[in-house]
Amino acid sequence: MAEFVNPTQPIPPRLAEEMNLIRKMERCSRSDLHRLMNCRKNTIGQDVNTLIQMGLMRETELQSLPRGRPSVHLEIDTDTRHVLGVAIMPGMVSCGRYNLLGQPLEMPTNLTVDDPSQILKATRRLIKQMHDNQTILTGLSIPGMLDRDHCKVLSSSTWPDGKSVSLKSLNQLTDSRLIFDNTTNALGTRWLLEHANTPLHDHLLIFLSDGILGATLLINGHPIDGCIICSNELGHTRLPLDTPRCYCGQTGCLERIFSTAYLKQLGENNKLSKAIADAPTSPKIRQITDYLTMGLANAVNFCRPSHVTIMTDLPDMDDYIDVLVEQIRDQLLREFANRIQMHKWTEPNAQPAASGAALALAQIYWCRPG
Ligand SMILES: [Zn+2]
Which domains does the chain have, with CATH numbers? Predict the structure, then answer.
């Protein structure tokens, strides 16, 4: 079977573009590729042979046409190769194999690990069990700030002692084919793979949970590089409020405001998601929502993206997110308020390992920098 030279870049950009065209169309012929790629027929023929030999693409049964010769179609090979998706979270690691269309080959394995010092050991064990010579790439999502050059985690809620954690042992286990990124960036990548055929030009994705608020700004499907790998730290936008202290050391952080802890401080003894579901227009929830809207509208005004997606894993939030989206829109600068397309995605965390797998798949279809 043909293999690739650069461990984290499975195929060159032209072949990735061809793969993505086939993914979008589900099936197409060599002639379709020749027309859409604007390449010589010989070039397309060679590319297709390479992709078939790599186990990434396959020919389908002959398609009978009303006239003329039968035609052989091409499609993504969902049987031969796979990617491994891994998600490390506070107290838990999840790992599963996914085919090249991002569908799970089996239910991912979730391990609860109470002791943070044992998380890497548990992750190594899972990767060892599932990684084989058909694994193209392994994608790993981790919350926090990461250093790609030195292959380590600088800080993460998974390791609350604040010490950096090396990922080199995981990289070795995957034959240096480990793609890792921040959890919110991985979620954003998965949204694109599942909801858009082609990366949107600019897209702000905001992840909301109880006491957690992350964001990622994607340009052509790639999170902006910045000075460090992490999500856009929208959750630490601060307002002059006396909230419970944030782990960043400050008070008034947006992710502290949108939390059960702050709701309790306001005098309501209920979980935030339950309080929202029970009485979304109660004075205390309205107060929290108004502050949240202010922070999010400021971020959208600052970026003026074409698309904004609000993601949440909190239950029963569909109606609330609809209201929040309209409230944010009301506070945007009027010149672009009606041009920004806003989407919602509830329950994005149902399968955390799928977000790790999305990081690997994005390498195959969009050639993200490794
Ligand atoms: Zn903070």
Answer: 13-76 (1.10.10.10), 82-189+351-366 (3.30.420.40), 198-346 (3.30.420.40)
